[in-house]
Amino acid sequence: MPSLRSSAIALLCSQLFSSAVSISLAKPPQECPADSPLSCQGSSEDTCCFNTPGGLLLLTQFWDTDPVTGPADSWTIHGLWPDNCDGTYESNCDPSREYSNISAIIEGHGKTELLNDLNTFWKDYEGDDESFWEHEWNKHGTCISTMEVDCYPEYTPQEEVVDYFQKTVDLFKQVNTYQVLADAGIVPDESKEYDLSQIQEAISAQHGQEVIVNCKSGELNELWYFWHVKGSAQTGEYVSTTPAGASSSCPDSGIKYVPKK
Ligand SMILES: *[C@@H]1O[C@H](CO)[C@@H](O)[C@H](O)[C@H]1NC(C)=O
Fold this sequence. Notes:
Blueprint: H1 4-25, E1 56-62, E2 76-83, H2 102-108, H3 112-121, H4 129-139, H5 159-175, H6 177-183, H7 196-207, E3 212-216, E4 219-230, E5 237-240
Antiparallel strand pairs: 1-2, 1-4, 3-4, 4-5
Residues 99, 101, 104-105, 108 line the site of 2-acetamido-2-deoxy-beta-D-glucopyranose.
């Protein structure tokens, strides 16, 4: 029988050992100072920890009913877009990092679950999801300053692409639009009509800010969420903020939320 003390030491050692192993296997995260300024608000020369000029991050989502895309009880992802804090934005910022193999890049990093999420929630209305992902990364992702290659201490090729898609899916799940609207009694229905203020109230109760609510022929079709970021877009803190630039295109009342059939 080992003494109590020696088994305690053995336990301690095994804990130390297992934590040492998991530390040595994981890549060090990209660290930003805790007092990193908030994008669009502060200023900094460190473009790896301060998103600039695209300091306003938008998560855009679709409710596609014709043709239907994605699950009947979920919105789908359009993209994550850096905006210059004022409604203008840069696009296609780095032709050398435009890719036509997003699925392969994500698979190559072993991110099976992420790829499943993309296949479920990031849908192209014409059915060509891969091309849609390429378009979003090439046009918008390449303009996120904190996701530039030099920002990664131990860069492995295209890991910033994986970060872009992972962060977008994480934000999408965090806002959970379908559930938040449903909890407020706003559900898809053939005949019901909703007010814009009702939708804004439901969303702001969870997101803390209003969003842009877009309609197509009086039917709910797109939502845009806005954040400033403290630190990097991939690991920093997202602080919700008011929309900039465009305003909602939905009418004040009589908004249809058509079921996906
Ligand atoms: C994706 O395409 C890029 C550019 O052509 C290439 O360098 C990279 O190896 C490809 N990645 C995978 C996993 O196929």
